[in-house]
Design a protein that fits this description.
The strands form 5 sheets. The chain has a 5-stranded mixed β-sheet with strand order 9-11-10-12-13, with helices on both faces. It is 41% helix and 15% strand. Helix 4 packs across helix 8 and helix 7 packs across helix 8. The radius of gyration is 27 Å and the shape is globular. The longest helix is centred in the first third of the chain and has 38 residues. It starts with 10 loop residues before the first helix and ends with a helix. By secondary structure, it is an alpha/beta fold.
Length: 638
């Protein structure tokens, strides 16, 4: 199944695919035996942080990204397996090439550090009337001036200078080429005697936070450097609470500002805070400097201090960075504080809540799914209203993910006749539904057949036993579907879809399917007596069951299972006679998998089979990631 029956790509195309899977865009020309530099992950075309070298024989190579610390190797696939001698020779070559790449990096960084020192020695302190500072409404805080640009020195925890950032009057930002940035930072404010240290991405954001609160702020310069800087801060200040002040990149796929800040906070036991722009948020508002521009410095001070005080009761008030705090790690909230926070969250609109749910789950030290359940319960109050979707309590003990997937796969084969590999594909898709909070794409599961009586409903029912938050479509209007997806993010089980999917192109459910493949997908609808415009989230897992053939728009977004009628002599156990208590236990184990492996899935970058590209790669990527994380036979099965 992994090879899709297609011929292998050429070795150089395989090398390019490996580089792409690492989140990089390979150079147009890759000459064997030559060291190439190109833009690092998420960087502009002027950047040269990423690198690669294809070995002279074209059958192996190394690649990496200085800005993120990535360093990996690749070996070509071929029809004839490599011998033990060839594999050993490849390992030696990889080790030697990595050693050479590291030496090259060290030499370049040393040269950049010398150049940074030379520039800084002649750069005067900048005044607060610099055009960039005036536009951002902030002060200089020790920044210097070089050729009309602000200059920020980038130091490590020992105080050694490694590089510089230059910021133009128009906000254009550049780094000294080849300078080390990973784990290095620029400090605003005094850390000696501080009770809290904040960490932010950009200079304007950090300056705003410092001026509003008085807390010292470490500037990491970008989201990818938040975790390395947080670890540097933790090493230098082992007892201080660390506050990750995230950018809310709501318009960017995967919201890297919040995702990377959350990852950094987890790595050091820190707290995540993010700006609150209110109901009338401008499209371009993402950070605390934008929040200050909209609502004033005082609003930033109150907001950040309020969240910090909930997590660290001894934390100081804004404007008093020294205070009397003991510097103890963040404490759990009291029951009263938890209840107050849940009440506030339950009063938010769905889109407002979605922007803060991850940070508040971190604050409460619970999984986002647990917080969702508490907020929904609070919304219902004493009305007695039941949850629209089934909630599952995780198994009390850690589980072996490979064994859990084996049990799900066995259930399919116990109760249904399936085409080759369908049991594996649907098992991995079921597991994906439990990790939907951290994935960027939601592939559809299409269960179809050319005629009736092929077991579609049975297979759909098996899927429904194990997915996260299952919701059948029977008795649910189209308007209600939009609202339930917005409120619950269920796994929709859309049975008998041929009645509208293939016959009525104007049915609103088409927009629900087409727009909901990618995180952030939404549709606009008029609601209420005054026909007010409202955006409904459509991102959720969906099972679609029908008779007939898939159209291209559906096929391209799908994991597709085509069933046939059971042949004479084929026997299965009837699902209606199954012991549901065993399957309920299996659901609890899947929920436990979510609890234990959510961070691993969020960070996974699986190597995809050659030929699996574009939307197919989007669909299958998370399934391969889960197979790799589960281990056992699953990587090979996938």
């Amino acid at each position: 199944m992994a090879q899709w029956g297609k011929p292998m790509n050429s070795p150089i195309d395989q090398f390019r695919d490996a580089i792409r899977c690492a989140g990089l865009i390979p150079p147009d020309m890759i000459e064997p035996g030559k060291f190439h530099k190109f833009a690092g992950e998420g960087k502009g075309i002027r950047n040269t942080a990423a690198w690669c070298k294809l070995f002279p024989d074209g059958m192996g190579g190394i690649y990496g990204d200085y800005s993120t610390g990535l360093s990996d190797d690749w070996q070509a696939k071929r029809e004839k397996p490599f011998s033990a001698i060839e594999r050993e020779a490849f390992k030696r070559q990889v080790a030697e090439e990595h050693k050479q790449a590291k030496a090259d990096q060290n030499e370049r960084q040393a040269e950049a550090a010398s150049k940074a020192a030379a520039i800084l020695s002649t750069a005067p302190l900048v005044t607060d009337d610099h055009a960039y500072l005036v536009r951002k409404g902030i002060k200089a805080h020790g920044a210097r001036l070089h050729n009309g640009r602000l200059v920020l020195p980038i130091h490590d925890t020992d105080g050694a200078l490694h590089s510089l950032q230059f910021i133009g009057p128009d906000g254009d930002k550049r780094f000294l080429p080849d300078g080390r940035k990973k784990g290095c930072y620029f400090i605003i404010g005094e850390t000696k005697g501080a009770s809290v240290i904040c960490i932010a991405e950009g200079y304007a954001t950090g300056a705003t936070i410092h001026e509003a609160t008085g807390y010292p702020v470490a500037i990491a310069f970008d989201a990818g450097n938040l975790s390395p800087v947080a670890k540097s801060m933790r090493e230098k200040f082992p007892d201080l609470p660390l506050i990750l002040c995230a950018d809310d990149d709501v318009a960017t796929e995967g919201n890297p500002g919040i995702a990377k800040a959350t990852e950094a906070a987890r790595s050091v036991g820190g707290l995540v805070v993010m700006p609150n722009f209110g109901a009338d948020r401008p499209d371009n508002a993402t950070d605390f400097n934008d929040m200050a521009a909209l609502h004033g410095m005082e609003s930033v001070a109150r907001f950040i201090a309020g969240l910090i005080e909930l997590a660290t009761p001894e934390a100081v008030t804004p404007g008093d960075p020294q205070g009397s705090a003991s510097g103890s790690p963040a404490k759990l909230l009291s029951e009263a504080e938890e209840a107050d926070l849940i009440k506030k969250l339950s009063g938010m609109k769905p889109l407002e809540y979605d922007r803060v749910r991850i940070a508040n789950a971190e604050l409460l030290r619970v999984r986002p799914a647990v917080l969702d359940a508490q907020v929904k319960s609070a919304k219902k109050g004493n009305s007695g209203e039941q949850s629209l979707v089934e909630q599952t309590e995780p198994h009390p003990h850690p589980v072996n993910p490979a064994e859990v997937l084996n049990e799900v796969r066995a259930a399919f084969n116990r109760h249904a006749i399936l085409p080759a590999h369908a049991d594996v594909a649907m098992t991995l898709w079921i597991a994906f539904t439990w990790f939907i909070d951290v994935v960027h794409f939601a592939p559809l599961l299409v269960i179809r057949s050319p005629e009736s009586e092929c077991g579609k409903t049975t297979v759909k029912d098996i899927v429904g036993l194990f997915v996260r938050r299952p919701l059948p479509n029977e008795g649910v209007t189209t308007a209600a579907l939009f609202r339930v997806v917005e409120q619950e993010q269920p796994t929709l089980l859309l049975d008998d879809a041929d009645s509208w999917l293939l016959c009525d192109p104007n049915d609103d459910r088409h927009s629900l399917i087409n727009s909901g493949h990618k995180r952030g997908g939404r549709v606009l609808r008029c609601v209420g007596d005054h026909h007010e415009l409202k955006a409904f989230s459509t991102f959720c897992a969906k099972v679609i069951v029908f008779i007939g053939k898939s159209k291209d728009t559906l096929h391209n977004r799908s994991i597709e299972i085509v069933l046939r009628r059971k042949m004479a002599g084929e026997r299965v156990q009837a699902l209606r006679y199954a012991d549901r208590s065993n399957y309920d236990l299996l659901r609890a184990k899947l929920a436990r998998m979510e609890a234990d492996y959510l961070p691993a899935v969020a960070k996974a970058k699986p190597v995809l089979p050659a030929g699996l590209e574009n939307r197919a790669a989007d669909n299958w990527g998370v399934l391969f990631a889960i197979a790799d994380i589960a281990g056992g036979a699953w990587p090979e099965l996938a």
